[in-house]
Every structure is written in structure tokens, then in C-alpha cells.
């Protein structure tokens, strides 16, 4: 039986997972990555001995990513966030205990008693909500419907930002928010030892063992199509590589630019509003307040977390801290001073212990907000490109399951199912046919 030849464009976690799954299923897979290294947004840099992810990265232990990683035999190593230390709600420049369970809800002064009761009722009912019933409901509509108090709405909107990175309450589907909160309630998130590069290298090893050919510094220019059927790829150097199927694992804009005459893909790219954030990574020789490990902005879109308190991310005794601003619109940016001000509240005096830092005014966290208007998660583009035979896509903007990297892994799995199903239906499909 001929193996199906598959070209994967993009060597982030989504492309790597798709390549590994397809190769294990018997396809002959080549992955092309334009950059010199694999990982995409899951990259980790070493700065003065500190491991800096591209902004704070947390893996949902109950999410689709863990399911797919489990199938690939990858067991991420790291620590569960929030198992020790103090977590705060940041409001009007002051820290309050963050309500994360019944005890902290009772003791916090961030809400008065009536607010605590309202939040408590909501949290108790959250596990029973079917998120799919909220696909067409915006976060704003859901907050207004379920909560009578403005301070409770602000707190839940902050938890929504934490889970989705999106602060656009008018656009974001409440389905995405409830899905993420339910995942976090099932099992708190994992921070990874040595950063997300460790995950990238584990999935890379599985892909190599399964026979995937990995080509780095290999920019793909075009998908070659004939009579509505994929024929292969044209590379940046002008050469053509034949393939029975092509999996595009970049952004909606990348996909559209590889198919420049395709108006459907161009429209999808134009309709995909990305979620963006500004990030500040800090490596400190020590923490001025060792117990203060987490802060979430309630009246502003702030996040700060000492990731090294739970995962190995720097020298012994040092601290690796992620500070982030959730950006309101795709074209907004933050200043470094805004993010430093959050640290001044959580860790006053941190500057005296500074060893390493890196600031990014705006990064794409995920390529598409699942909007209420488009029907939530199911309104995102499908993994199979319906009007081109043999063309598929993978990413955090694709498919009906999961957010962030969970969507990348889930869409990789959907492509695997679609292609392997097809392969069994057409066992003698010739290479390049
Ligand atoms: C600040 C920040 C915080 C985040 N926090 C979290 C978190 O807490 N939890 C979580 O689950 N996720 C988080 N994410 C999102 C997560 O990083 C991404 O969802 C995930 O890494 C996406 O993987 P991917 O493979 O789909 O895409 P990418 O990592 O973007 O990979 C796409 C790859 O395709 C390559 N490519 C594109 N076009 C071409 C071409 N023409 N030829 C060759 N190669 C091409 C690119 O170079 C790139 O390497 C965060 C992201 C950011 C930026």
C-alpha cells in the first residue's frame, strides 16, 4: 500500500503534533519551518540563566493538549500553579486576597458579603453549565444575565481574561470563558520545567522517531493546486515538492498568503481578530516578598505570576516572573512602565534584585477570538478546507475544540482523523496524484 505523502507547513506545537500523529498513522511526512528553529510561539529563551517563555504559558491539565500529548507518549514535566504562596486580586493599586475557593472567598475583603454569596453561587453552579448553550452569547450578555453586582462582574471578567487572554467582553463568546473556567476547576494549570521549549523538543523527538523529515529555514511560498486538488508546495527557493495533502499550521494570514487567489481564505483571515498581550519577563536574584506569587487585575487588565515558584525556570534561589497586560484591541500596545507598576505593587523593591528582563509591547497570543456573533468555538474555520481537496489547517484559530494551544493540538488531531480516514478509504492513491 502506498503511503500518503503529507507536507506540513509550520513547526510550532500544532504543526509538530500533526506531523507526529500522521507519521505514526503511516503517512510519509515532511515538515517545513521558515525559521531556524522549531517551536513558534512555544519557544523559550535563555537570558542570564533564566528560562523566558514568550510571555506566561500555562498548560491546562484537563485540556485537549494533554489528551494529544498523552497519545504521543509525552508527559510534560513541571509544577501545578497556585499550590503554595499568596494569590491576590489587584484593585485600585491595592492587593486583596483572590477568591479561589471557599476559604479564600470567605476571608477576602475584595467583595462585601452579598457579593461573596453571589460569586459563591455562580462558582458552585459553573461545573453544571453546558458551555455549548452559550456559544452565541457574549461574555457581556452572560455577565449581565447571571450577575447583579458590578463588583462580581468585574471579578468574573478578570477570571475570563485569565483563561482566554481576551478582554473584549462584547465580542468574546461566553462558551469559551465557561469552557476555560471549567477546565481550571477540574485541574489547575501546569507551568513547565525549563519552559515550553521542553514540550517542543519532546514532540519533536516523537515526530523524528515516527519518521517525520524536518526542514528548517525552509519558507514555503505557495500551495500548488490543480483542478481543486492539492499537488504540493512551491518553496521560497522556487523548487516544487509534491504532496498528496498539505497541512498549513501558521496564522490565518499565513494560510491566505500561501493561496493568494483564494477569496474564501482571504475573507477568513480578514475576519480573524487576534488576541494580543504585552509581556514583561523578569529574572530576579531573589523575591523581596517570597510569599507573594500571583496577582490578577480586577479594575485593569493585569497579570503577574512567579512561574519559578512552581517550575524549574532559573538559578537556585532566583525568581522568574511573568507580567502581562491583556490588550483591549489588536492595534493597542503597552508601555514597559505600565507593567513595571504592577510589579511595584506585588513585589516592592524588585528592581534591586533585577538580573534579566525582556519586554514585548504586543504579541499575538491567539489568532482568532471565538466570537458570540460567529457562534463561539464552532464558528472558527474547520480543519479541512472544504473547497480544496487535500488541504488542511491547524492552529489556535481552527476547529470547534479548545482555546490557545489546546485548539492547536485538537485541530492537529482532527486533521489526523480526516486524513487517515481518507487514506483507508483510498488505499491506492498515488503520490502526487
Ligand atoms: C504571551 C503569550 C501567552 C500565551 N499563553 C498561553 C497559555 O498560557 N496557554 C496556552 O495554551 N497557550 C498560550 N499561548 C498560545 C500558544 O503559545 C499558542 O497557541 C501555540 O504555541 C500555537 O502553536 P501553533 O503551532 O498553532 O502556532 P505557532 O507557534 O505560531 O507556529 C506557527 C509556525 O508556522 C511557521 N510558518 C508560518 N508560515 C510559514 C511558511 N510559509 N513557511 C514555513 N513556516 C511557516 C512559523 O514560523 C511558526 O513557527 C500564549 C501565547 C503568547 C504569545
Task: Explain what you see.
By secondary structure, this protein is an alpha/beta fold. It has 3 domains: 5-42 and 198-272 and 375-425, FAD/NAD(P)-binding domain; 44-81 and 190-195 and 273-366, Guanine Nucleotide Dissociation Inhibitor, domain 2; 113-185, Orthogonal Bundle (Guanine Nucleotide Dissociation Inhibitor, domain 1), CATH 1.10.405.10. The protein contains 12 helices and 19 strands. It has helices spanning 13-24, 64-71, 102-107, 113-126, 139-146, 150-164, 174-186, 197-209, 252-258, 263-271, 336-346, 404-425; strands at 5-9, 28-32, 44-47, 50-53, 78-80, 86-91, 94-97, 190-192, 213-215, 220-226, 229-235, 240-242, 245-248, 275-284, 292-297, 302-306, 319-326, 354-366, 391-393. A hairpin with a 2-residue loop joins β3 (44-47) and β4 (50-53). α9 (252-258) packs antiparallel against α10 (263-271). The radius of gyration is 22 Å and the shape is globular. It binds flavin-adenine dinucleotide. Flavin-adenine dinucleotide binds at residues 9-15, 32-35, 40-42, 54-58, 219-220, 249-250, 254, 258, 277, 279, 363, 365-366, 395-396, 404-406, 408.
Amino acid at each position: 500500500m502506498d503511503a500518503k505523502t503529507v507536507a506540513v507547513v509550520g513547526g510550532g506545537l500544532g504543526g509538530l503534533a500533526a506531523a507526529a500523529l500522521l507519521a505514526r498513522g503511516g503517512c510519509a511526512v515532511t515538515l517545513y519551518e521558515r525559521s531556524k528553529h522549531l517551536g513558534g510561539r512555544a519557544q523559550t529563551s535563555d537570558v542570564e540563566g533564566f528560562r523566558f517563555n514568550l510571555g506566561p504559558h500555562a498548560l491546562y491539565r484537563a485540556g485537549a493538549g494533554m489528551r494529544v500529548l498523552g497519545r504521543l507518549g509525552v508527559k510534560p514535566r513541571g509544577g501545578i500553579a497556585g499550590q503554595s504562596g499568596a494569590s491576590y486580586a489587584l484593585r485600585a493599586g491595592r492587593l486583596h486576597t483572590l477568591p479561589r475557593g471557599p476559604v479564600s472567598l470567605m476571608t477576602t475583603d475584595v467583595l462585601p458579603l452579598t457579593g461573596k454569596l453571589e460569586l459563591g453561587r455562580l462558582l458552585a453552579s459553573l461545573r453544571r453549565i453546558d458551555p455549548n448553550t452559550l456559544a452565541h452569547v457574549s461574555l457581556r450578555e452572560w455577565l449581565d444575565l447571571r450577575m447583579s453586582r458590578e463588583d462580581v462582574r468585574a471579578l468574573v471578567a478578570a477570571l475570563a481574561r485569565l483563561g482566554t487572554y481576551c478582554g473584549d467582553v462584547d465580542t468574546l463568546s461566553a462558551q469559551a470563558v465557561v469552557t476555560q473556567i471549567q477546565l481550571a476547576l477540574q485541574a489547575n494549570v501546569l507551568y513547565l520545567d525549563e519552559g515550553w521549549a521542553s514540550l517542543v523538543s519532546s514532540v519533536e523527538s516523537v515526530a523524528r522517531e515516527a519518521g517525520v523529515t524536518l526542514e528548517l529555514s525552509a519558507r514555503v511560498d505557495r500551495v500548488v493546486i490543480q483542478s481543486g486538488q492539492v499537488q504540493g508546495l512551491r518553496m521560497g527557493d522556487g523548487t516544487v515538492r509534491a504532496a498528496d495533502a498539505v497541512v498549513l499550521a501558521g496564522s490565518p494570514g499565513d494560510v491566505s498568503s500561501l493561496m493568494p487567489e483564494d477569496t474564501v481564505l482571504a475573507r477568513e483571515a480578514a475576519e480573524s481578530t487576534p488576541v494580543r498581550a504585552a509581556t514583561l519577563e523578569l529574572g530576579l536574584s531573589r523575591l523581596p516578598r517570597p510569599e507573594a506569587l500571583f496577582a490578577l487585575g480586577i479594575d485593569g487588565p493585569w497579570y503577574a505570576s512567579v512561574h519559578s515558584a512552581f517550575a524549574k525556570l532559573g538559578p537556585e534561589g532566583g525568581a522568574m516572573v511573568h507580567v502581562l497586560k491583556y490588550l483591549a484591541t489588536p492595534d493597542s500596545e503597552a508601555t514597559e512602565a505600565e507593567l513595571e507598576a504592577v510589579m511595584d505593587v506585588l513585589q516592592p523593591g524588585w528592581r534591586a534584585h533585577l538580573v534579566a528582563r525582556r519586554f514585548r509591547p504586543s504579541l499575538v497570543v491567539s489568532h482568532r477570538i471565538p466570537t458570540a456573533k460567529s457562534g463561539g468555538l464552532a464558528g472558527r474555520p474547520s480543519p479541512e478546507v472544504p473547497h480544496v481537496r487535500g488541504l488542511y489547517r491547524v492552529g489556535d484559530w481552527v476547529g470547534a475544540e479548545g482555546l490557545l494551544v489546546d485548539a492547536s493540538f485538537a485541530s492537529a488531531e482532527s486533521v489526523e482523523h480526516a486524513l487517515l480516514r481518507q487514506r483507508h478509504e483510498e488505499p491506492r492513491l498515488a503520490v502526487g496524484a
